[in-house]
Design a protein that fits this description.
This protein is an alpha/beta fold and 298 residues long. It folds into two domains: 5-89 and 270-288, NAD(P)-binding Rossmann-like Domain (Rossmann fold, 3-Layer(aba) Sandwich); 92-261, NAD(P)-binding Rossmann-like Domain (Rossmann fold, 3-Layer(aba) Sandwich). The chain is 34% helix and 14% strand. The chain has helices at 14-22, 50-55, 74-80, 92-107, 110-118, 147-158, 174-180, 200-205, 223-232, 270-288; strands at residues 5-8, 26-29, 39-42, 61-64, 84-85, 139-143, 162-166, 183-186, 211-214, 237-240, 259-261. The protein has a six-stranded parallel sheet, with helices on both faces. The chain has a five-stranded parallel sheet with strand order 2-1-3-4-5, covered by helices on one side. Helix 8 links the parallel strand 8 and strand 9. Helix 1 (14-22) packs parallel to helix 10 and helix 4 (92-107) packs across helix 6. The longest helix is centred in the last third of the chain and has 19 residues, at 270-288. It is elongated and about 70 Å long. The two termini are 31 Å apart. The relative contact order is 0.16. The structure holds (2R)-2,3-dihydroxypropanoic acid. (2R)-2,3-dihydroxypropanoic acid binds at residues 44, 66-68, 91, 266-267. The site of (2R)-2,3-dihydroxypropanoic acid has 7 residues, from loops.
Amino acid sequence: MSGPCVRVSAPIPEAGLRILGRAGLEIRMGGLEVRGVDALLCLLTDRVDARLLERGDRLKIVANMAVGTDNIDLAAARRLGIPVSNTPDVLTEATADLAFGLLLAAARRLVWGDRLVRTGGFTGWAPMLGLGMDVVGRTLGIIGAGQIGRAVAARADGFRMEVLLTDKNAGVPLAELLERSDFVSLHVSLTPETHHLIGERELRRMRPHAVLVNTARGPIVDECALVRALQEGWIAAAGLDVFENEPELAPGLADLPNVVLAPHIGSATVGTRNRMAEIAAQNVVAALEGKPIPNLVR
Ligand code: DGY
């Protein structure tokens, strides 16, 4: 019988691989074959469903290199007694930075301006050129008052914004938040309850000058309804880092001038991704050494 081994589904930062190597684990790179391995270190793009988990004849942990675990069938993992871990906390600030960056970029038409300059359309300062929205002193509605939502609220403080929060148990009701906010930023996990939390009805409740920001998960927003909202002026603009059927975009989304698009890079700083890889690896090592798993998802 071979020694303990871990399947790492795709290349991850060296910092994580070093921890696995130092613990004496055999690393099998690539793919999702879990038969004959003790641990799976996977990504949010890996669909870890019941069938896959059932193949894991000696699987002792599924360590997701992400805070979200909506790619994993947690109920099946529980039924099979396979612990699942994630990488919370470390990506809070980086993701909040990106959410605020998208908010500013959408409000101040930064991508439109960049294109104009590059394509030679900038012929000089003009009083009406590139008019966007004021941010300071406006109202920011944050849906999901977890760590990232609260980190976005801290940034809004510097812009002297009024912050409305909605959460399962606290804050203002969703309808009121949508009606009162100039900016709405999403920070809930994707669950059956939050799937299409923002659909046609909710978008129509928002103010015509409002900006929607999503750095959480694409399916929280009904993306086809969002395209219509942006085309027909139910809201003014959006900043999106995540998409409903990633990496595909809803028809028409990429043609809109009033949306800023990013390729799911909320946590993509060198430091954050290194820490995420390290934490995922530490969870694997703990599980295989029979120690408490630091970031067990319950
Ligand atoms: C996560 O971790 O869930 C983010 O979406 C990617 O860093």
